[in-house]
Amino acid sequence: MNSMQRAWRSVIRKPIKTLLLLLVIVTISLLILCGMASRNASVQTQDNTRQAIGAGLRLDANERNRFKRIKEASEHFDKNGEGSYGGVHQKIISTARGPQWSSWTDNSFDSLQMNDIKKIAVVPGIADYNITTVITPVLPENFERIEAADVDQHADIGCVSLIGNRRMALDFNVLSGNVSIKSGRMVEADDQNVCVISEQLAKANSISVGDALQFKNRRDPKNTNIYEATVIGIYKTKQLISPKMSGDTYRSENIIFTDLRFPEKAEGYENDPLFEHAYFKIGDVDLYDSVKTAVEKINMDWERYDLIDRNGNMSTVSSNFNDLAKISTLLIVITFVAGLVILFLIFVFWVKNRNHEIGVLLALGCKKVNILGQLFVEALIITFLSFAISFACAPVITEVAANYLVTHQIEQAQMQKDMNAGKVLTEYRESEQTVVGVNVAVTDEMMVFCGLGMISLVGASVGIAGISILRKKPKDILSELS
Predict the structure, then answer these.
(1) Which residues cross the membrane (predicted)?
(2) Alpha-carbon span 288 to 52, nearest angstrom
């Protein structure tokens, strides 16, 4: 009878021992798969403050990732905390109140990346796309803005707001039906140095389509160039556009839509744009889901972005959702370590309780290596049986585990937020997001990794536990039997 036959007979002869080991290996395998699936999970959240509109997808910068990149850049500053790295700058400036920290970022750091936008724009099914700049305050030169007569303007910066668009027809204000053209036309992709103004601003300054408006940099109005934009349209609104910030600079009537690259010039940052949103129109509504899936498969740094669908849902990878990826990785590491210890103890128990069998085999002339091999084959048979159970249960178990971890992360984040409430003053206000789904997938790569990992654990455990057999001489083992 060879080692394989002896191993199989041993497995079926002792069902309790077999079931115990089977249960342990199934548990370890499922924990490994849960950790891997959670690490790669897609956490879908809903953000009602940033709804996408119509049959399209909206690309925004991810707020958490921005602060993560700022933190990483600050690690490259000098020992005093000053320096510049990757578009992030920090230094100490002298003020009347004493030394103060000054921190800022370049537009290139905060802007959506044009290369990534173009990757999405060429996905089959995307009919058109728009890029929208951040709201840019600039000083009006040859016209007057609209102001509230009864409001003290000393606290206001005295500007109008420019919003650049590649195609104004795909601006969210237009898509929602709030903004429409009263006369003239909207901004198109090939336009340069053009603008569309509100009917209130046009009436107050007697401006008509074809007139030229002048703007200049608010930061250095005396030494800056003056930039002109030709009025190609006058718009009207059903409701006043909600201002993003306080002050007449940002009031609805003072919002001016321009071509995509004009705001950066008027602000004094030519060739350094700050793109805030990108909208991708899907041509066939029936193909919406397939186009969205194709977009999500694009090879780009998705941690940098939020992809918002027409319902306001955002798919965020787990490594970008609080510390879920770190916890998942820690779960995998702990499982491997604990698994090795548990399996080692089980196989040590096996060896000690099989001295009689081992002694008989040695007396019959079997080599110790063959005996150790038999133990490994027994464990391997049980391991393969456990894989069938683990892989069958994995989809359900991993989804439950991922949902639990996400819920735990939400609770921890809320507790931290409550603890820090009122302690930190910052311009950053994280938008309210509700988790509406956690999508996990057990891939072939995960199963292969889990399988190889478990075989390695079993092999290492048998090898370590079998040292007691290899180091003893056959007569010592036989003498113990007597």
Answers:
(1) 327-351, 372-397, 446-470
(2) 13
Six-digit token pair at 441? 């997938």
Written as one letter, the residue type at 448 is V
Of 57, 44, 119, 53, the closest CA to residue 291 belongs to 57
Report pLDDT digits (tens) over 92-148. 887 777 788 888 888 889 999 999 999 999 999 999 999 999 999 999 999 999 998
d(CA 384, CA 259): 63
Q: Tokens 């780009």 identify what position? A: 300
Average pLDDT over residues 375-381: 80
Instruction: Give the closest residue to 18 by CA, choosing from 408, 441, 382, 415.
Output: 382
Between residues 99 and 164, the one the model is more confident about: 164
pLDDT > 70: what percent of the chain? 76
Distance of CA 254 to the CA centre of its chain: 35
DSSP string, 204-219: HHT--TT-EEEEE-SS
CA nearest 379: which of 133, 9, 22, 65? 22
**CB contact at 8 A, 160 and 204:** no
Sign of CA dihedral 248, 250, 256, 258: positive
- Give the Cα separation of 337 and 453 in Å (integer): 11
Q: Return the bridge partners of 256, or none.
A: 162
DSSP string, 448-463: HHHHHHHHHHHHHHHH
Query: Rounded mean pLDDT of the chain?
Result: 81
Contact 209, 234 (CB under 8 A): yes
CA-CA distance, 437 to 256, in Å (whole number)? 39
CB-based contact 163:133 (threshold 8 Å): yes
Confidence of residue 429 (pLDDT cuts 50, 70, 90): very low
Angstrom distance (rounded) from CA 9 to CA 221:
91
How far, in Å, CA of 320 to CA of 318, rounded?
5
Which of helix, strand or coil describes residue 55? coil
Contact 110, 428 (CB under 8 A): no
Say which amino acid occupies 298: I
Q: For residues 147-174, give the mean pLDDT.
A: 88
Contact call for residues 196 and 255 (beta carbons, < 8 A): no
Which tokens go with 41?
A: 């999970």
Q: Are 105 and 88 in contact (CB under 8 A)?
A: yes
Joined tokens for residue 35: 């950790």
45 has a pLDDT exceeding 60: no
The band of 428, judged by pLDDT with boundaries at 50, 70 and 90, is: very low
Residue 279 pairs in a beta bridge with 58, 130
What tokens appear for 187 in the block? 């901004």
